[in-house]
Amino acid sequence: MNLFSNAEFGLDVHFDCFGEVRGLLHDPLFLKCTDLHIYGNTELLTNEEMQFLLEKTGSIKKLKLNCLLSTDFNNKILFDISVMECHKEGFFTKDDLKNMKCQLISVHQNTLTENQTNEFIHHWLKGGNPDLTRLKLYHFDDDYIPNWDVLLKTVKYSKFDGKRRARYIKQELSNYRCRIVKFDCANGFDFERSDGKLATVIYHDKEFYFIVWHDRFLLKV
C-alpha cells in the first residue's frame, strides 16, 4: 500500500538544477502537491516551464516564486492560485492586483506608489477582488513613513473598535511552513464597503497590510 497516495504535501524546486530532476515530475504522486516553492539564482523560469510545473502539480493552492523569470513571463497564468507570493521587483502591477482572484497575495520588492495603493483600495470598495483576504507589500525604505492622507484619500475610515472586529489575526510566517503567529491590528485604519464587508490597512516593520475581515472575529491568514 502506498502510504502517500492520499497525502497532500509541499515541494521546493531549486530551478537552477531543474533539468536534472524534471523527469521525476511525471510521477502522478506530484498531482497531490498543494504548496510549491520555486527558487534559484541563475536559470530563467519560462512560461513553458511554469506551465509544465502547474500541470504536473495539479493541486497547487500556494505558490512562492523566488527565482529569475524570463522577460516575457506571463504572470496572468498565476492569477487563480489561492496563495501567491513573489520576490521579483515590479512583477505585479496595480492592474494585475485588481484582476487577481487570489485570497492571499504577498509582494516583495514593492513598487506600487501610495496613489496606486489608494486606487486599489477604492477598487476593493467598489466590489473588486471579492476573494481577497490579505494583501501584503514588503520592503519599504528604512526611513519610509506612510502618508495616510494619500493612502486613504477620499476613504471614509475609522480607528480600531473591538466591538466591530477582532484585534489580532493569525498568519503563517513566510519562511516557515506551519508556523503560525498572531499579528496585532489595533493600530490599523478600518473602512467598510456598501455590502458590509470590513477591511483594515496597517503599516508595520516595513510591511503594508490590506486585510479583509470575511469573519470579523475569526481570521487566520
From TrEMBL:
Start and end residues of each Sdz-33 F-box domain: 85-136
Superkingdom, taxonomy of origin: Eukaryota
Protein name as catalogued: F-box associated domain-containing protein
The species this protein was found in: Caenorhabditis elegans
